[in-house]
């Protein structure tokens, strides 16, 4: 009797008529495809959304004639790190690409890379990151130029408390963009991390906040190579504090570690690109982060 009941429970009356699937099914599929920050595998971006779409097309340029992954992401405050993956485009080689995206989507992020050694994307692989504003018209002639080692100059972020060690493992971090939850136009902020013969450097980004411990809120951490760096920051973001260090013992910044901060902290992000945001790393005598010197009143 129990077996019979179980079998009857699995039966469904079939009429031969087409019946639309429950919309929740499409939502579940879309969530599964976009659940990871790296784009959700090889799924077609936005394929299950039944909305009007426009075409985004352009060219991927790289010196290496090998396959390319393009991860598609959008801002989502409820997602880890504020960005949600919506699928992945796979290209056999550099060349033309296109995808369909919802009309008036807003900000769209594309991350393209080539996995040279088939060991997962890392700081040495060709990489590029672009932000697009999707309105009502198709976007054409979008050019994405992959540069070897560019990931080291791109926002690579994983959540960490100020001063805590935070080594990034292989693969794409959960949130490569410290400003991932902020939509709108981006500006270039560039400078130099001055440190001879140094390993990769931790660059911490803070926003002044009187309600947070220490009077500031941590936005994210980036792993950068010494030398020139470029960060895409939100237009009119306001004040931004930058501090850098090398955590030789992996126990947080302290005695024996090299440190430095931008001498004119905070940087004020307005409406124009910013340059010369240089940070020199030194061995401080007291083992503490060098801070901006207060001007003595006259």
Could you explain the architecture of this structure?
The protein has about 300 residues and is mostly beta strands. It folds into 2 domains: about 20-150, Carboxypeptidase-like, regulatory domain (Immunoglobulin-like, Sandwich), CATH 2.60.40.1120; about 155-290, Sandwich (Immunoglobulin-like). Helices cover about 5% and strands about 40% of the residues. It contains 2 helices and 16 strands. It has helices at about 1-10, 25-35; strands at about 55-60, 70-75, 85-90, 95-100, 105-115, 125-135, 140-145, 145-150, 185-195, 200-210, 215-225, 225-235, 240-245, 260, 265-270, 280. The strands form 4 sheets. The chain has a 5-stranded antiparallel β-sheet with strand order 3-2-5-6-8. β2 and β3 (about 85-90) form a beta hairpin. The longest helix has 11 residues, at about 25-35. Mean pLDDT is about 75; it is low at about 1-15, about 20-40, about 150-175 and about 295-298.
Topology:
Layout: H1 2-9, H2 23-33, E1 53-61, E2 68-75, E3 83-91, E4 95-102, E5 106-113, E6 126-134, E7 139-145, E8 147-148, E9 186-194, E10 201-208, E11 216-224, E12 227-234, E13 238-246, E14 258-261, E15 267-269, E16 279-280
Parallel strand pairs: 1-7, 9-16
Antiparallel strand pairs: 1-4, 2-3, 2-5, 5-6, 6-8, 9-12, 10-11, 10-13, 13-14, 13-15
Question: What would a concise description of this structure say?
Answer:
This protein is mainly β.
Terminal residue distance: 95 Å
CATH fold naming of the largest domain: Immunoglobulin-like
Report the structural category: mainly beta
Number of strands: 16
How confident overall, as mean pLDDT? Answer: 74
């Amino acid at each position: 009797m129990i077996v019979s009941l179980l079998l009857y429970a699995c039966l469904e009356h079939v009429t031969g008529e087409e019946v639309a699937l429950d919309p929740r099914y499409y939502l579940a599929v879309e969530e599964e495809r976009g659940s990871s920050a790296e784009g959700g595998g090889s799924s077609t971006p936005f394929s299950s959304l039944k909305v009007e779409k426009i075409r985004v097309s352009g060219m991927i340029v790289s010196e290496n004639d090998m396959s390319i992954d393009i991860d598609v992401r959008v801002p989502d405050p409820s997602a880890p790190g504020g960005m949600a993956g919506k699928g992945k485009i796979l290209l056999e080689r550099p060349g033309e690409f296109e995808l369909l995206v919802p009309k008036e989507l807003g900000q769209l992020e594309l991350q393209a890379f080539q996995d040279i050694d088939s060991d997962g994307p890392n700081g040495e692989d060709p990489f590029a990151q672009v932000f697009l504003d999707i309105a009502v018209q198709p976007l054409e002639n979008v050019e994405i130029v992959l540069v070897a080692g560019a990931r080291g100059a791109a926002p690579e972020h994983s959540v960490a408390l100020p001063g805590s060690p935070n080594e990034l493992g292989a693969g794409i971090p959960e949130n490569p963009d410290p400003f991932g939850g902020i939509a709108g136009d981006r500006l270039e902020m560039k400078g130099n991390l001055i440190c001879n013969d140094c390993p990769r450097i931790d660059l911490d980004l803070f926003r002044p906040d009187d309600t947070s411990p220490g009077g500031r809120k941590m936005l994210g951490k980036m792993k950068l190579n010494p030398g020139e760096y470029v960060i895409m920051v939100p237009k009119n973001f306001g004040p931004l504090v930058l501090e850098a260090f090398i955590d030789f013992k992996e126990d947080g910044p302290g005695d024996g570690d090299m440190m430095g901060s931008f001498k004119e902290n905070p940087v004020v992000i307005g409406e124009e690109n910013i340059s010369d945001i240089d940070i020199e790393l030194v061995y401080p005598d007291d083992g503490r982060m060098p801070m901006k010197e207060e001007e003595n009143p006259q």
